[in-house]
Amino acid sequence: MVEEDRELERLKQKKIKELLSRAEKREEVLDKPIPVDEEKFKELITKYPLVLVDFWASWCGPCMMIAPIIEELAKEYAGKVVFAKVDVDRNRRLAMRFGIMSIPTLILFKNGEPVDMMIGAQPKPMIEQMIRRHL
Q1: Is 60 a catalytic residue?
Q2: Which of 11, 26, 33, 128 is 20 to 30 A from 19, comparing alpha carbons?
Q3: Among residues 63, 66, 88, 118, which one is catalytic?
Q4: What's the CA gap between 55 and 37, in Å, rounded?
Q5: Domains and CATH numbers, the chain
Q6: Which pLDDT does position 127 carry in this prediction?
Q7: pLDDT at position 111
């Protein structure tokens, strides 16, 4: 079981690198949330002008509730906002760095700096309101 987890993590990291590499080469419009780890986090938030980061965990019920909302918003705001997901269990230092005490926590980064935060599962209109304030 532990070996399977390592293999899954290795494959996930490989896929993340491929996605980021393709995005850099083609400047493609990102219309899905991108899983990000500690290694690629800074690169992502500084590369795009507006990035909404969802700090979540697989065991978190409210995180699962807002996941489809984040997916929808990623499609609707493609080309304007990049959406990223940080698994707090696998990226504890990032969670600590931003003082994540409850999940889900959404942090909006503008030009690499945090400008807004939302804690807990919120309805789509509330998340959109936060995004629109910074467009």
Answers
A1: yes
A2: 128
A3: 63
A4: 11
A5: 30-132 (3.40.30.10)
A6: 97
A7: 96
- Which of 36, 82, 86 is CA-nearest to residue 58? 86
**Nearest Cα to Cα of residue 40 among 3, 90, 2:** 90
* Mean pLDDT for the stretch of residues 114-121: 97
CA atoms within 13 A on the CB side of 27: 3
- In DSSP terms, 52 is beta-bridged to 83, 108
What is the pTM assigned to this prediction? Answer: 0.79
Nearest 5°: the CA angle 112, 102, 99 is 45
Tokens encoding 125: 């209109």
- Counting every residue written for the chain, the total comes to 135
Q: pLDDT, tens digit, for every residue of 55-114? A: 999 999 999 999 999 999 999 999 999 999 999 999 999 999 999 999 999 999 999 999
CA distance 131 to 77: 9
The catalytic position among 45, 50, 60, 86 is 60
40 as an active site residue: the answer is no
